[in-house]
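User: I want to check something. If I give you two sequences, will you return the structure for each one separately, not as a complex?

Assistant: Yes, each is folded on its own. Here is the first sequence with its structure:
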Amino acid sequence: MERSVETALEWRVSHKTTADRLPDLAITPPVTGGSGAHLRWVAEESAAG
């Protein structure tokens, strides 16, 4: 496999709210694709424990 540098446009999203409204901020966008290695890394890094 040839190594290359990938460039892509990414967006950072920030939400501001109060502590009492935090439960209402349940925004979970669907994951619709990505490289297997990256998706495994995200799952490992975000796993509880």
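And separately, the second sequence with its own structure:
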Amino acid sequence: MKNSPHRICFRSERFFHVLGEGWFFEAREGMFGPYETRVKAHEALSRLITRFPQKRPEKLSDRAA
């Protein structure tokens, strides 16, 4: 993102918009963007999730005694 004193951010959950730059999203892997629309940012997040599925934590009951 540009270092501008006039930058205004609109944040909602993991998606946010920076005027004059575009849409971004945050994930564990970092910040991604800019995208032209929130829809395009959401699509990119969906591709990221598909590419790197979350590893589910092991349940205590699954551990060998």
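Because they were folded independently, the notes below concern the second chain alone. The chain has one domain: 9-54. The longest helix spans residues 38-51.
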